[in-house]
Structures are given as C-alpha cells and as structure tokens.
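Supplementary notes for students who missed Thursday's class. We covered one full example, reproduced here. Read the sequence, then the structure, then the short commentary at the end.
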Amino acid sequence: LGLDAVAPFLAYPGKAVFVLCYTSNPSAAAIQEFGPAGRPLFEHVLQEAATWGGPDQIAFVVGATRPEALRQVRRLLGNGGNWILAPGIGAQGGDLAAALQAGLTAGGSGLIVPVSRSVIYADDPRAAARELRDSINRQRQAVRAAATPSTFPSASSASLILALHDAGCIQFGEFTLASGVQSPVYLDLRRMAGDPGLLRQAAAAYTGLLQPLQFDRLAAVPYAALTIGTAVALAAEKPLVYPRKEAKGHGTGQIVEGPFVRGETVAVIEDLVTSGGSVLRAIETLRSAGLTVKDVVVLIDREQGGPENLAEAGYRLHAAMTMTLVVETLTTAGRLSSEQSTAVKTYLTQSKE
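Structure (token representation):
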C-alpha cells in the first residue's frame, strides 16, 4: 500500500498503474464507504493516489455495480484525465448504460468495461460482442453530445483543494478580515509550511503555470509567499529573490534580497490575490531595484478585483485556481453545504461590485 509500492512501476515510460479504489462486490461498501461524513475511504484513496503521478500514469479500478461511486470518482478526477477500469457488468449485475453515463469523461472516453463473460457464454459470441460495442458507442456519442464546458478542476487541482481544506488552509465560518470586512471564508496558506507533502503539491501547481513563461528569476512576496517561493524555486530549479518590506538599515541597505542583475525579468510568486494591492507594492520595490516584471503567479485568485487591477497596471496574473472553483470542488466532495456554498458565492459577487 502507498506510493512506495507503486513508484517502481511508474518508472516505466508509457505505462500506467491501476489503483484499486472501489470493488464491485456487494459487501464492499461496509469498508469503502467507511469514514467521516463527506470523506469515505474510497475518496481518500483516490485523492491520495492521484498525487502519485500524472493522469496518464495513475488509473483506478471502480466497480460498475456502484454507479454513484463511479460518478463521484469521475467528478473528483476533474471529469477527465485518468482512466477507470469498471468491472461488474453482466454476471455481477452492473448496468452498462448506467456505468457509462457515470464513468465516461465529457469527451466520451476514459472508461474500460470488462465484458468477457457476457461474450464468452453468449450463444453467438460474435453477435454479443458487436451488440456491446454498438451499445457502448451509442452511449459515448450521447455523452459527447450532451457535454458542456467543464467547471471541474483537473485531478491534481481537485486533490490539492481537498488537501488544503484538510490542512486548515481553507476555512469556512464568520471571519473579520484585516480590512474589517466580514467574510464567510478565510484562507491561511501559511499553514502549508507545516506539511511538506502539501507544500510539494502546491509547488507542482506553481511550476506548471511557470513553465510557458519567460523569466530569469522568481521573486516571492513577503511574508506568506517566502516559504512557497522557496519550494517553487527548488521544484522549478530557478533562483529566488524577494523584495523587503523596508530597506535594511545596516550592511548593504538592500531593498531586494538575493543575487540578481539589473534588467533581469522576475516572475512574482504570491500565495493568493485579493485586490492585488500587496503584489503591486512588491512589484514597485522590485522595479525600483532595476528588475522587470511581467507575470504574477498565485495559488488562489479570490476573484475580488486582483486580475483586473494587475492587468490595468500592465501585469498578467496566472492562478492555479479561483475561489469559485475551490467552493465548487468542496461542495461536490460533500465538504461544504449548499447553504455555505451560496453564502461564499454571494460574498464573492458582492465584493466585486
């Protein structure tokens, strides 16, 4: 069990590992549904295993006899990506149409349905195989025709959101922000510093956003992003600097810490963006030291004017996720009630006005 048991197989290029997530036998629910409300064991297995490799490396076994579990797995996988092996059709009582509707991606793919017994024991195996093939293709076409642009995150984003919630980085309730405004949600991404695994997962999200950008160094906004910036610098193998909140009153009097050359371009790293004010102040310090800034990369966009304010100042914002996506993911996973979800979405809408 665990990553160390799977890791040797992930070393083979072009190969995938199937992780047992939810078996098809009737009594499986007693074990696989075990856990606190909204966090059954099979979901924990899914979310943990999804971090072990890319969608082309990690696949899951989910019984076709439980289409509701199959549907939940596909949702948590971001409605795409990873393959699912769904045994249980035919002799075990699984319904082909229900399994396909629950487990296919929006593109009509991503599901492997074993039907060997239905073919082998048929009076006319060739005709049985052809009928099954045609039924599957009809269902795939129906799914593709009904598909709308997905609002679900990728498997890695969904896993990261749930991990952030588990770590207390995303909290819901009644909070007073530094501005004095009441908020139904509070983000404390500093807590990632106490969880190396979560920090690595977040760093991977940042490096994915940084990959297409052109820059010489990273610049972390103090203080919340210093730990994150260090993790990202290690993951991306890029040098890191950071602007001081105040110039040193001794030594060299530096306003930017870390080696750099005037004229170099830095990609700014921040934990989240609200209005963008703290980022713009950090950029002003970086520019006064002779550095060029074009891009700002954050983990969460609170959708409270940050992208627009940064764009107006001439900077591009790249966010791993929006607050809306966070809320939708946690609601889908049963972590957030519909009332809480509505309260947060209303707050976000009103804060934009």
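Commentary. The domain at 3-146 is CATH 3.20.20.70 (TIM Barrel). The chain has 14 helices and twelve strands. If anything here is unclear, bring it to office hours.
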